[in-house]
Input
Amino acid sequence: MKSILVLGAAGQIGSELVPYLRNIYGDKNVIAVYRSTPLPREIMEGGPCENMDALDGEQMLSVVNKYNVDSIINLVAVLSAKGEANPTLAWKINMESHFNALEISRQTKGAVFTPSSIGAFGPTTPMDHTPQDTVMRPTTVYGISKIAAELLGDYYALKFGVDARGLRYPGIISNVTLPGGGTTDYAVEIYYDAIKNKSYTCNLSAGTYLDMMYMPDALRACAELMEADPSKLVHRNCFNITAMSFDPEKIAAAIRVHIPDFRLEYKVDPVKQAIANSWPNSMDDSAARDEWGWKPEYDLAGMTSDMLEVLRKKLK
Output
């Protein structure tokens, strides 16, 4: 990657990925794209930015040509819970932005990174150590759009030679940006409430295991995959990756190591619970480990220690 366009730069991943990539590739070589949500000052002042609608293919092509972009990272998405509230909008945004990125990359002979998700799996998928290649019958419009995006990326790679790559991200936990309507949001919110209130009311039930990952690992995975030798990539467009799997009780126990009187209560959201129940308990990411050397650096204990240390300073 030499000149990188990041769509959705104001989102949870994008707001941290842009500075991360600028540190690697140079400030002028990473263009942050946003639409309605303002970008953080650090990003606005740190390098090129464009206000653009990712659903407008002509506008996207113009920006790609302006900066001679060779790689598009498309983080534009309506997430799982919000998608169920407005499935028509979720499909439109998730699919049209992806199609535009692929079609423009076909014309410019560039590369595309579009994250997929554990949401691409469904209730008939094996729940434990979910294989890389398995049954995928998602029951949310978010998941359906993600599996459709995987297949469309495969099609553009096969038909037109587009270098389409992607990761099936688990829940992403960040100490910088709050999440935006996903089923795994509780795993971020719980740390904030642990510090502010020493208690948290969880909208998923005890025993709901889901794969999770700390943001530093998620950022590194994106860059490492995009730099990986294409000749070694078999599952180039939809790698399972994970770092840890836990339920609310386990994350609460990890917090109590640092905040012994932390209390966890429950008020289950039936919509989010149904979505979580349709997703894997844990994924098998051996294909990513074998094909491009994926290896997470954070486990639950390490992430919890770092999250609480950072948030204590942030919330003073």
DSSP finds twelve helices and 14 strands in the chain. The chain has two domains: 4-171+213-240, 173-212+243-282+298-314. The CA atoms of residues 81 and 182 lie 5 Å apart. The first helix runs from residue 14 to 25.
